[in-house]
Amino acid sequence: MDHRPLVSVIIPVFNGAAYIASAIRSVLAQKFRDFELIVVDNRSDDGTVEIVRRFDDPRIRLHAEAVHLSIYENFNRAAACARGEFLKFLCADDELAPAHLSTLLPVLQAQPGVSLATSSRLRIDERGRPAGVLLFPHRRGLIGAGDCYRYVAEFGNFIGEPTATLMRKADFDRHQGFSPRYRQVGDLDLWCRLLSEGCLHYHPEALARIRSHCKQLTRLHSRQPEIWIRDEILFFQRLTPLFLNVELPGIARKRLLKLFTARMLRTGIMSYAGSPRQLVRAAGHLANLLPRSAVLAGVFENGRKIAALAGRPILRGVKRAAPGNGTSQRAPG
Questions:
Q1: Among 184-193, 196-205, 261-270, whose mean pLDDT is lowest?
Q2: Whole-model pTM over 0.85
Q3: Collapsed DSSP state (helix, strand, coil) of residue 308
Q4: Which CATH superfamily is domain 7-219 in?
Q5: Closest CA to 244 of 141, 149, 123, 174
């Protein structure tokens, strides 16, 4: 009878010949050993498959797609091949620290209320040299769903890339995985859906190495603003109901809504300023999905941040709202 590994490490890849060997070696170097490694090739034509086949390890399985899929379709197809209880995604140009699985896995095993585990990330360059740590400084350890949504509302994807996270396969399947409607922020969409049922565990040590290089998909997409515009609008449409329905006292919910609206306004101005038509479209979505009071609160919140950055006091005569009772720690403004 075949052994069912506890963890399925999944590497979806397309034309990843430059870094796929480093990614695989980082998995084989894990202190925790009860895993399978599934590499799902998305019709590469740069020799990626040949590189994977050079590794002689029974835990490695290679699956080649018959047709080219979108990025998140390939992630979902890879997850469907997994036999483990836990899912560990690894982008083909990234690497895992040796203690990644041995550190995050015990958290999920010991705490059923944790839906997602993640960590800080070490940014590396094309040659693998350290280029700084991606660390969320405001919290560590267990973070409840309400606070997670508040941080996402204000800071964006503080949770990290798929390479940083570990989750249960049952949870992934129940939420139907990544939405293929996205091209860029499908990971954050899934993180928020997972956290609707549990907490996040954030480990402060950098357990993942995220590579930055000229052919990185994120960098390529940054040259195509229409991708970011479409994804941000879609994320806003899909996640606003989830953010509004989170179980928080009324004042905390208002603060959450204010921070989310303020971030969306900032994103809209920065992302869509060069495209008046898309800017109007984004503003229309804001107006349709949020009450006018929330939009006005978001405008004021951005004004407060600008004033703080400029070293100016908050507008006189305006009473500052007290922190929400439902938040365990207030993020700096």
A1: 261-270
A2: no
A3: helix
A4: Spore Coat Polysaccharide Biosynthesis Protein SpsA; Chain A (3.90.550.10)
A5: 149
